[in-house]
Amino acid sequence: MKVIITGATGMVGKGVLLECLDHPEISEVLLINRRQISIKHEKIKEIIHQDFGNYDSIKDQLAGYDAAYLCMGISAAGLSEAKYKEITYDYTLALAKVLYNHNANMTITYVSGQGTDSSEKGRTMWARVKGKTENDLLNMGFKQAFMYRPGAIIPLKGIKSGTRLYQFFYDYFMWLIKLLKFLFPKSIVNTTQLGQSMINVTRSGYEKNILKPSDILRTSK
């Protein structure tokens, strides 16, 4: 199985990457990044690409893959709706359209978030944008499309968050996340479980298109 990952320099994407590298059924992992990742592995192919709104220059290199794990994301803090939509929606759909033209039978997964607004009409800006992104991906026509809404995520295997505020929280308040995990075991996932879940739903499918933490835990086994 050959897969594509975006956002592999971030916490979620790196977690998914590490699980793909360890999985015996995955033979190749194509990373699309703006900067080179520090991990070296025989399975990794890497494309350094700067314009995430246009993939014409690399589209021929995106053929022949079985799945795409879209893990690229950014916090909405301090961003206008137009800028957040460009990064979250426009960049994601630009790649998805190219992938669909190459192989509509592939599996696509998208990391969204708890609280995403599927109606696209709520007051919260990021939730509306994520909702539109999810809806358009689901309606594009891929054989399998899964939207991931993980909520709180525990980073494992030495993974750090690229967002300073999030990493500060992990550094000083991980005890609180672990306490919540103990009290509500089906409400919090880790980076390993996210990666394993994506691989498993690619291989075996799942009954739901939108996966909440309990679904992620269930499909990670």
From TrEMBL:
Superkingdom in the source lineage: Bacteria
Name of protein: NAD-dependent epimerase/dehydratase family protein
Gene Ontology annotations for the cellular component aspect, listed alphabetically: membrane
Localization per record: Membrane
SUPFAM superfamilies: NAD(P)-binding Rossmann-fold domains
Domain NAD-dependent epimerase/dehydratase: 3-105
InterPro entries, per the entry: Epimerase_deHydtase, NAD(P)-bd_dom_sf
Species, as recorded: Fulvivirga lutea
Main subcellular location of this protein, as a coarse class: membrane
